[in-house]
Amino acid sequence: MTTTQRSDAPTISDLEAAPEETIANPFAEAGLNLFGLKGEPKCAEEYAAILQDHAETNVINIADYQDGSREVLAGEDASSAPELLNDAEILGTEPEGFAEFIGREATLLVGEMWGARDRRNTQDSEWVSPTMSWSNWVIGGAGNGNAPAWGFSRHPAGKNKAGPCIVLGSSVGGARKAKAMDTMYAMGLDIDSGAKLDDVLVDIEEKGLLCLVYTSYNNGTSGLELKRDEVLRKLKITRDPTEAEIRQYLREFDKN
Questions:
Q1: Would the pTM count as exceeding 0.85?
Q2: Is the distance from CB of 70 to CB of 136 less than 8 angstroms?
């Protein structure tokens, strides 16, 4: 069903107003004119009477998600699908103290990192320190043409791992240095042990912990490219490295 606004038609205020309980009230609130099949203007109450002939069971309601998250048809079995918040799946049940925690304020450092000596990097004295509730940090905001989506429940995909980032605490003078940090509001754990993500999630839930889990840029990759000259230089050799030497290089020198 489509309704349109005609320039030569009376506005909704010129028509009879409908009671709030009528099905046509959303059209009135949107300032749309209502027309019959022959194009004559109809008041909201008349239009509601026509729609009342159709039972509610014949109507499918679709949730309106403006942020691009998953659309859910009314009547869908909610038990078969995980509860969603933006890009995130909500797993488990609320741990004790969750309501108090989610309303607690946290000050985190926000800036950008693009690589060594890149001019786009946020300088140590220029990191911003917003203070907001954990619920706001989790919900975040949708991205646009000028800025990416942000928030712990959003998972924008990038072409590389550089860009905007968050430090889980506040610092003295807006510096991103270990010795400048004055308060840490959360603990970040980087799991590279080879444990399966599903197994980690089960373990977290069994322990009744509150945790925000996300996959990093290299998650799921099956290989790693190394610069041969760099490997040889660090290992101080002039021949092709053995597998054992490559493992040594990864342990001692490579950030991956």
A1: no
A2: no
